[in-house]
Amino acid sequence: MTAFAEVPALLIPLDSRLAEPLYRQVYRGIREAILSGRVPAGVRLPSTRRLAAELAVSRSTVLLAFDQLNAEGYTIGAVGSGSYVAHQIPDHLSRARPEARTTDSLPRTPGRVATRTTRLQGILRPTRRFYPGAFWPGVPPVDQFPLGLWSRLATRCYRDLSVSQLYHGPAAGHPPLRNAIAEYLTAARGTRCSPDQVIVLSSAQEALELACRVLLDPGDVAWLEDPSWVGVHGAMISAGASILHVPVDDDGLVVAEGIGGAPHARLAYVSPSHQFPLGVTMSLDRRLALLEWAARSGAWILEDDYDSEFRYTGRPLAALQGLDTAGCVLYIGTFNKILFPSLRIGYVVVPEGLVQDFLSVRRLGGQHASTINQAILADFISEGHYARHLRRLRTVCRERRDALLQAATEHLPDLLDIPNVETGLHAIGWLPAGMDDVLASSRAAELGVEAAALSSCYTNRCPRPGLVLGYGGLRPRDIDAGMRRLAQALRTLPTIV
Q1: Which of 57, 261, 299, 347 is the 20 to 30 A CA-CA neighbour of 36?
Q2: Which residues pair with 85 in a beta bridge?
Q3: Are strands 221-226 and 267-270 parallel, antiparallel or unpaired?
Q4: What pLDDT shows up at residue 496?
Q5: Same structural domain for residues 456 and 480?
Q6: What's the whole-number average pLDDT of the chain?
Q7: Would residue 107 count as lying in a domain?
Q8: Which domain holds residue 66?
Q9: Looking at residue 29, which CATH number applies to its domain?
Q10: Angle separating helix axes 204-215 and 355-365, nearest 10 degrees
Q11: What percent of the chain has pLDDT over 70?
Q12: Is residue 108 in a domain?
């Protein structure tokens, strides 16, 4: 008989003070494990010698228990192979249940979850699948990733691996990667930072969670772009912040609205290079006004620069952090939206005075990004592969953006208006006035298309219905096929004028 798996251990409580013999206690413990499903059919049980050692009883005690189990049909013995749980147990045995515990019958008053948990559940949207299709946002062209090159770098890294690298790395991250990130950001994003200010994390979301834990006390006011990404909303809720939802227009966050609503806020979150989801760029006047307010009021600014590398016309704009002379901006970035999502490496650049505060809280979190993957990524960047790959991705994403615009024009000329996209991995498809974008998103999902409703990103009233359409992770033919299905969904909807 061939087993599908072997039980690694069996926890069977034994008490030598009971009148019941020990072999009966062993028998009863295994029988209950089988009937409860903890040990499924076809699984091989531990050998009698090993189980006796684990339970600190004689082997003859275990042999007696196994003989009883075999006789009653719970197990089947195979010569030279061991004992297995029987696939078919007699009906009168399969209906048996372990003896009820005394505490099972005690009345219980249901406990409650924290209020912030209920708030978090209220902002989450259902996830229908985990493999991206049309039009999942925030996914890079994973099909273009140089797997062969990465594999060679990984092989070299593992070949030269030292025992010390098998332990937890520094809380701030792998030093060569921090050096590489600092050099890249200085050259490509115009930031002003040293490697000591770079803290490597698993994602931009972890950076947001960490920043909110370090900088916010419960009840502190924080500005949040409206509309915004659900992840930062959740991070602020988890920190117990009082959130002021500040509107965004064509010039980015309306700083005057934030000052008018909460002039003494502790923190402001912005995505100035490519606002999510609207895609607008924050004007220089607004950036300077935000920095002046933060310096004057002693507030912090979280700058989320999640996909500004994907810019298709002109040079990428310098980061807000590079304009900061007061040391109030924390810069957040990620490689998960540039290389591949399962890499799980992001980072935050913090002002020098905050480094130790962040590292202290970071050590308590225990969510260190893989040290080995950090080492591979450091080589990938320092040897020039990252810059070359990014140049190629810009060309590929530009082609995919063009394919999205063409497909929308061809299949939905009267129902979907997509303005020209200059940055990022997603676009907004504006719907006719009066169309319900939540219903449109739901109908699209029924046809296998993920197109988030723009109104679901707003806390206040959404001024115009629209859909968030990601294209970075889709080949042109997949974009066209997705647009055809989206057209089929939208043409079934009424438009209320």
Answers
A1: 57
A2: 75
A3: parallel
A4: 52
A5: yes
A6: 90
A7: no
A8: 22-101
A9: 1.10.10.10
A10: 110
A11: 92
A12: no
* C-alpha closest to that of 444 among 490, 481, 413: 490
Hunting for tokens 């034994």 — which residue is that? 14
Q: Do 176 and 321 share a domain, yes or no?
A: yes
Amino acid at 76: I
- Retrieve residue 322's tokens: 């590079």
Residue 254: inside a domain, yes or no?
A: yes
Cα separation, 320 vs 271, whole angstroms: 9
Which CA distances in Å does 435 have to 310, 332, 466, 486? 31, 36, 9, 14
The residue assigned the tokens 């540039």 is: 338
Q: Is residue 103 over pLDDT 70?
A: no
For residues 321 and 429, membership in a common domain is answered with no
376 and 413 inside one domain: no
Average pLDDT over residues 419-446: 94
427 with 472: CB under 8 angstroms? no
Q: Are residues 167 and 230 in the same domain?
A: yes
pLDDT tens profile 326-382: 999 999 999 999 999 999 999 999 999 999 999 999 988 766 788 999 999 999 999
pLDDT reading at 129 higher than 60: no
Together in a domain, 474 and 383: no
Task: Based on the fold, state whether residues 210 and 190 are members of the same structural domain.
Answer: yes
Scored b (16 or more CB within 10 A) or e, 385-410 reads: bbeebbeebeebbbebbbbbbebbee
The answer to whether position 428 is within a domain reads yes
Cα gap 211→267, rounded to integer Å: 10
Query: Cβ-count burial of 160 within 10 angstroms (0-12 exposed, 13-18 middle, 19+ buried)?
Result: exposed
Q: How many domains does the chain have?
A: 3
Q: Of the candidates 250, 313, 316, 245, which has an alpha carbon nearest to the alpha carbon of residue 280? A: 250
Residue 331 pairs with which residues in a beta bridge? 303, 349
The domain boundary residue, chosen from 362, 387, 412: 387
Distance separating alpha carbons of residues 48 and 52, to the nearest angstrom: 6
User: 346-349 and 198-201: which strand pairing?
Assistant: antiparallel
